[in-house]
Design goal:
Structural class: alpha/beta
Number of helices: 11
Strand order of the largest sheet: 8-9-10-7-11-12-13-14
Strand content: 15-25%
Shape: globular
Number of strands: 14
CATH superfamily of the largest domain: Dihydrodipicolinate Reductase, domain 2
CATH topology of the largest domain: Dihydrodipicolinate Reductase, domain 2
Radius of gyration: 20 Å
Order of helices and strands: EHEHEHEHEHEHEHHEEEEEHEEHH
């Protein structure tokens, strides 16, 4: 039993709070789930006995018992609420996109350093089983030197989302900020900062106000080319991860296993949580020394977003370097925010 728990408040009890944050905060022994904001309906106590429910973000932020604030509000509010939390002496964990602009992100990082606090990005997709399988194959060296990489995150949603901040013209809207931020983070975590990049947007749904298609092309000094694509009009998704190297190729579909399980109500204690179905194995194809084509199906390791909280705990309590770096977040936002290529 951990005695020195991190007392935590979550700014919203919407879908992200109910699915991605509170269950894991309750599960991890290093955190004390203390408070949540519920502006209208007061449902949190039905699931989490004893939790405080605040009517406003500002009231929660100024709760003296809190040490960590989770900012999971609309994209365009991240900077304002995170800065308020830092000024109130709290550590901050911010959902993607970290902020809308790199200027805002730099301001938060600087303020956190000035206050001797941590402001940390919540990039949970680094702990998806499908992404972890890609990381494992790359680390194994079986592909040789990576030459060409394709990452995709696709859905089919003709009708606008009920989450208006994703669909209107306020800063931080559109599919690139929404799904694309996951893909860009994944690429930066695996391959580092690119030498240059280009970007293309598209609007194809009826009367859409924001991009529903986007592609980013990252070029690296060693010749590696990474293509990031996201669309809301893909009825039959293909592989979400394709890597071609000097010795072979790897393909993997996106399983989204944890999100689907959480939405279905599967308990974190269930032994099947984070386990992919056997039919969803990745396909590794290599050419051996006899010039033979050898194909192998690989199972992904069990995954859990609980690891994000473990990273947060280790950073706040012991000063361990956080896996998502300031440089990666700044680069991610510089790609997201600019309308023209560089």
């Amino acid at each position: 039993m951990i005695k020195n728990k991190i007392s935590t408040g979550v700014l919203s009890f919407g879908m992200s709070g109910q699915v991605f944050h509170l269950p894991f905060l309750k599960k991890h022994e290093g955190f004390g789930l203390h408070a949540v904001t519920e502006r209208t309906k007061k449902n949190a106590q039905l699931q989490y006995e004893g939790i405080k429910s605040y009517d406003s973000v500002e009231a929660l932020i100024h709760d003296d018992e809190l040490e960590l604030i989770v900012v999971n509000t609309p994209n365009n509010t991240h900077f304002e609420f995170a800065m308020q939390a830092l000024h109130a002496g709290k550590h901050v964990l911010i959902e993607k996109p970290f902020t809308v602009t790199s200027f805002e992100a730099k301001a938060l990082f600087n303020e956190a350093k000035n206050q001797n606090l941590y402001v940390l990005p919540y990039q949970n997709r680094r702990y998806d089983s499908d992404f972890l399988s890609v990381k494992e194959v790359l680390n194994s060296g079986k592909l040789g030197k990576p030459i060409e990489v394709h990452f995709r995150f696709d859905r089919y949603k003709v009708e606008p989302s009920h989450k208006i901040f994703k669909e209107d013209t306020r800063p931080g809207g559109g599919v690139l900020y929404d799904l694309g931020s996951h893909l860009i983070d994944g690429a930066l975590s695996l391959f580092g900062i690119p030498q240059k990049w280009t970007k293309t947007y598209g609007k194809f749904r009826p009367d859409t106000k924001v991009d529903d298609y986007a592609q980013v092309h990252l070029s690296y000094a060693d010749g590696l080319q990474v293509f990031i694509t996201t669309s809301l009009l893909v009825a039959d998704p293909g592989p979400a991860f394709v890597i071609h190297g000097t010795r072979g190729s790897y393909q993997k579909i996106r399983t989204n296993v944890q999100e689907n399980q959480l939405l279905s109500g599967l308990n974190l204690e269930d032994p099947l949580f984070g386990v992919e179905a056997s039919k969803d194995k990745g396909v590794l194809t290599v050419i051996n020394e006899n010039d033979e084509n050898i194909q192998e199906k690989l199972s992904a390791t069990t995954s859990s977003y609980l690891q994000v909280l473990e990273d947060v705990y280790q950073t706040i309590r012991y000063g361990k370097p956080y896996p998502v770096t300031e440089a990666q977040i700044i680069q991610q936002l510089e790609i997201l925010e600019k309308k023209r290529s560089i």
